């Protein structure tokens, strides 16, 4: 037998899809973790696409989401809150707010209760822009949830709430 190898000979590469599931053997819980990761990756890709289409940085989209979440929770949306949620220092937070304000997506307004405090508000046009892009995705998720009975939805809610808590950093003293 000749030990010399053909320099142009290459072993065929195995595609991940060719590996049988039985060869991987991972626990169901780990499969759920990987599925959750896949969903978050896809969501992140959609956010990046939205940002690119609208002349924004991906951090700007996360900032808008944070501000909308604060509004839903009736929390005062300040620069400090936004910086903490995004993990940005004050200069980075100001840069994000300035970009969003220049694009007409966010307005700085005085707090009615404390005139010294400036609040951030997502403008209606930015909300419409987000609905146009993300609306069909949200509608698709709502259709999926409609196929679940109330007990199943409560299980999903408990899982996502607990998982979110795992990823949410502890407040710093």
Write up what this structure looks like.
The protein is mostly helical and about 170 residues long. It contains seven helices and two strands. The longest helix is centred in the N-terminal third of the chain and has 26 residues. The termini are far apart.
Topology:
Elements: H1 21-24, H2 28-53, H3 58-72, H4 79-86, H5 90-102, E1 106-110, E2 118-122, H6 124-146, H7 150-167
Antiparallel strand pairs: 1-2
Q: What is the number of helices? A: 7
**Topology order in helix (H) and strand (E) letters:** HHHHHEEHH
Rounded radius of gyration (Å): 23 Å
Quaternary organisation: single chain
* Average pLDDT reading: 88
Percentage of residues in strands: 5-15%
Major β-sheet strand ordering? 1-2
For the structure shown, list the relevant keywords:
6% strand; mainly alpha; disordered N terminus; two-stranded antiparallel sheet; 2 strands; 173 residues
Summarize the structure.
The chain is mostly helical. 62% of the residues lie in helices and 6% in strands.
């Amino acid at each position: 037998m000749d030990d010399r190898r053909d320099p142009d000979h290459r072993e065929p590469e195995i595609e991940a899809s060719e590996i049988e599931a039985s060869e991987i053997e991972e626990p169901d819980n780990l499969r759920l973790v990987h599925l959750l990761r896949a969903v978050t990756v896809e969501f992140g890709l959609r956010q990046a696409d939205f940002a690119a289409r609208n002349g924004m940085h991906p951090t700007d989209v996360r900032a808008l989401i944070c501000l909308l979440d604060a509004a839903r929770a009736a929390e005062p949306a300040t620069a400090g809150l936004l910086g903490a949620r995004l993990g940005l220092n004050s200069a980075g937070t100001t840069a994000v707010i300035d970009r969003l304000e220049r694009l007409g997506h966010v307005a700085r307004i005085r707090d009615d209760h404390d005139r010294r405090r400036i609040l951030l508000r997502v403008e209606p046009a930015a909300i419409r822009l987000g609905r146009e892009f993300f609306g069909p995705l949200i509608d698709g998720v709502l259709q999926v949830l409609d196929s679940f009975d109330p007990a199943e939805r409560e299980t999903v809610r408990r899982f996502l709430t607990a998982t979110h808590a795992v990823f949410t950093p502890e407040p710093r003293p």
